[in-house]
Amino acid sequence: MADTTLYLIAYDIASNRRRTKLHKLLCGFGKWTQYSFFECFLTEKERILLSHRIEQLIDAKQDNVRIYHVCSPCQEKADTYGSIRPKEDTIYLL
Question: pTM of the full predicted structure?
Fold first, then answer.
């Protein structure tokens, strides 16, 4: 399995149409945990691909997308209330 890193992605998109498209895009890369907020465990290649797709989708003059890199030691320090800590899903291929 390739090394992954946790990325927190928050967005504020002016257009309903672009917001829906971004939401669908992000659903393919991670978990929707709160309104306009995703937790994604990505390889470096996936992060680059996602960043490129986001840049193509948004209107940089009206929209705002932030991607925060969370290192492994910082994940352990995160306080979580009302839900479980972010964790990477395990996928088994048979």
Answer: 0.83
The residue ranges of every structural domain in the chain are: 5-77
Which residue, 30, 28, 35, is CA-closest to 86?
A: 30
Both tokens of residue 20? 């829906």
Identify which of 7, 2, 1 has the alpha carbon closest to the alpha carbon of residue 70.
7
For residue 73, give Cα distances in angstroms to 32, 47, 77, 82, 94.
23, 20, 7, 22, 32
Whether domain 5-77 has CATH 3.30.70.240: the reply is yes
Helical residues (DSSP H) of 13-68, grouped into ranges: 16-27, 44-57
Q: What is the pLDDT of residues 18-67, one digit of tens each?
A: 999 999 999 999 999 889 999 999 999 999 999 999 999 999 999 999 99
Measured CA to CA, the distance from residue 42 to residue 88 in angstroms comes to 10
Residue 70 in contact with residue 6, Cβ under 8 Å? yes
